[in-house]
Amino acid sequence: MNSFTRAIFVAVVCCSFVPFTKEQYTPDWTSLDSRPLPAWYDESKIGIFIHWGVFSVPSISSEWMWWSWKGNDPSSEVVAFMNKNYPPDWTYADFAAQFHAEFYNPNEWVDIFAASGAKYIVLTSKHHEGFTMWPSKYSFNWNAMDVGPKRDLL
After folding, report:
1. How far apart are CA 18 and CA 1, in angstroms?
2. DSSP 96
3. Which burial class, exposed, middle or buried, applies to 101 when counting CB atoms under 10 A from its CB (0-12, 13-18, 19+)?
4. How many helices and strands in the chain, by DSSP H and E?
5. pLDDT digit string (tens) for 11-47?
6. 72 phi and psi, to 5 degrees?
7. Taking a C-beta distance cutoff of 8 angstroms, is the pair 132, 139 a contact?
8. Which stretches does DSSP call E strand in the chain?
């Protein structure tokens, strides 16, 4: 994909997040559930959601890996994996330094996604454990700029 086409693709994806309605919603489920689906989403057959972050380092379970390891009802598979592969004093936060994103090439990703026929892409930029994929003054030393890749991945 040439750079002009790539720029158009990115612009279309970004513009799709701009609100085109003056409808006001209230902070309750009835109101929020009344929002119509955007046509670009509802009519698209393929979209890509990227869940990627610190939890990708151990490569077991899902983005809920920490909960599967240390939560109220730990997964025996995840606990056994951690016991076998990491020292006893290892913490979830220790994975952040190993999250290097060495194969992250957004231009290549756009080419692959466009070739797949995807009509939209959603990168989860902050997961429930608070690690942000961008530099954040509110997430000091728990973001992709301060630890791990040392770059803005968003």
Report:
1. 25
2. G
3. middle
4. 6, 2
5. 555 555 555 556 788 999 999 999 998 888 888 888 9
6. -65, -30
7. yes
8. 47-50, 120-123
